[in-house]
Amino acid sequence: MVKDWPKLSSQPLGDYRVFRLRQDRRRSPRTGRDHTFYVLESNDWINVIPITPAGQVVLIRQFRHGIEQVTLEIPGGMVDNGETDPAGAAARELREETGYAAESLIPIGVVTPNPAILNNHCHTYLAHNARQVSQPHFDGSEDIALELVDLAQIPHLIRSGRISHALVIAAFYHYDQYRRR
Q1: Mode of pairing for the β-strands spanning 20-27 and 34-41
Q2: pLDDT tens digits for 48-66?
Q3: Are 101 and 70 in contact (CB under 8 A)?
Q4: pLDDT digits (tens, 9 = 90+) for 111-160
Q5: Hey, what's the torsion of the CAs at 138, 140, 142, 148, to 10 degrees?
């Protein structure tokens, strides 16, 4: 049986605005040996699947610096410091990135983005009857274009690789499971 590894020490190494880095020493319960691990501490993240009354999904295109490419995604972002409710962060990110607001936000799933090195969760919300109510309000490092796509096209966009962001694909899996209930 796999057991928890006791934490022997934990030391912060740096704060980089969107994440903090720490070093942990833990002991293997199987071997008794000590090992060093690095953990990226991050606020929780949110993803929003906004669906318009016409059955279209509001997608965004933006440049992603990690892969140096423009990607097709759903709106999302971080739960900011001081925000206690991921649903509030979801409503905020939806409005900031798209100018849309929803009749209702329904939590449909939570994943751990990479539990080997990250300590956070990503919450997915379904935004029913999303309508544009304002212009988007991008922060200084965002450059986003909106794209409305029929919901029926999403599986093709995933299969073809046009949607490749793992957390976006997980969000649509949660949506599919929500629909099947």
Answers
A1: antiparallel
A2: 999 999 999 999 999 999 9
A3: no
A4: 999 999 999 999 999 999 999 999 998 877 889 999 999 999 999 999 99
A5: 20
CA distance 164 to 4: 33
pTM: 0.95
- Give the Cα separation of 45 and 118 in Å (integer): 12
Report the pLDDT value the prediction gives residue 139, as an integer from 0 to 100. Answer: 79
Residue/partner pairs of 108-115 with CB below 8 Å, 24 or more apart? 108/49, 108/171, 108/174, 108/175, 108/177, 108/178, 109/170, 109/171, 109/173, 109/174, 109/177, 109/178, 111/167, 111/170, 113/45, 113/166, 113/167
Please state, in angstroms and as integers, the Cα–Cα distance from residue 97 to each residue in 103, 120, 143, following that order.
17, 22, 9
Burial annotation 86-108 (CB, 10 A radius, 16+ → b, else e): bbebbbbbbbbbbbbbbeebeeb
Fold classification of 45-180 is Nucleoside Triphosphate Pyrophosphohydrolase (3.90.79)
* Placement of tokens 């060093």 in the chain: 36
Rounded Cα distance, 20 and 40, in Å: 6
Domain boundaries, the chain: 7-41, 45-180
Q: How far apart are CA 20 and CA 39, in angstroms?
A: 8
